[in-house]
Design brief:
The structure is a single chain. This protein is α+β, with helices and mostly antiparallel strands and 197 residues long. It has a single domain, classed as Gcn5-related N-acetyltransferase (GNAT) (Aminopeptidase), CATH 3.40.630. 29% of the residues lie in helices and 33% in strands. The protein is built from six helices and eight strands, in the order αββααβββαβαββα. Strands 1-2-3-4-5-6-8-7 form an eight-stranded mixed beta sheet, with helices on both faces. The two termini are 20 Å apart.
């Protein structure tokens, strides 16, 4: 198998700026490791997730949703989780063609390229699963996350004013970034670039 064919096979070992990392699909056994990971995240990082993943009941529900339109990829160093990418689709909704991507990283792994690797993996898996439109959301001050998604071709589509509230009560605006896969694919086809997509 060449590198291109191997690109989205999981589990997969990677090097992130000198740190060995393994990407693997989340399984029912990963609850304790995910809770430990979430417990080490700054509270502000949890704001763009729909639920507070630092609560055991939320992680239990998350595990129960695996395989029902939700797929999560964990980044491991040794026995600890240091990053997560989740692809969320609801095949029974009015938007079965749309997938949400959620990426969260531990502080010690930022700036090492792991966020980009997780985003690219989730992006490829969502498209491979038939998603025609992708979106991600984050607070407007999360500049690194915004730049990461813009680098994948996402563009701002909406700002939701005071949409999320921290535990202390402070409200934040949420930006929604979108990527229209079919429009990009059609543009590539018009220029004869289908194989490059």
């Amino acid at each position: 198998m060449n590198d291109m064919e191997n690109a989205h096979v999981l589990p997969r070992d990677l090097d992130c700026d000198g740190q060995a990392v393994t990407l693997a699909l989340m399984t029912q056994d990963d609850g304790p490791a995910v809770l430990a990971f979430a417990g080490g995240l700054p509270p502000h990082d949890l704001l763009f997730l729909r639920r507070d993943i630092s609560h055991p009941k939320v992680v239990e529900a998350w595990l129960g949703e695996l395989g029902t339109g939700l797929e999560s990829i964990l980044a491991w160093t040794g026995n600890g989780v240091v990053g997560c990418a989740t692809i969320v689709r609801d095949p029974l909704s009015w938007s079965p063609h749309v997938a949400e991507l959620r990426i969260v990283l531990s502080e010690q792994m930022r700036g090492r390229g792991l966020g980009s690797l997780l985003a690219q993996e989730a992006f490829a898996r969502a498209i491979g699963g038939g998603a025609e439109k992708l979106f991600a959301q984050m607070t407007v001050d999360q500049k690194g996350a915004i730049a990461l998604f813009e680098g994948l071709g996402f563009a701002p589509e909406a700002v939701l004013r005071e949409h999320v509230r921290e535990r202390g009560g402070q409200k934040h605006d949420l930006v929604v970034l979108c990527h229209d896969v079919e429009r990009v694919r059609a543009r590539h086809a018009a220029f004869g670039l289908n194989d490059a997509f």
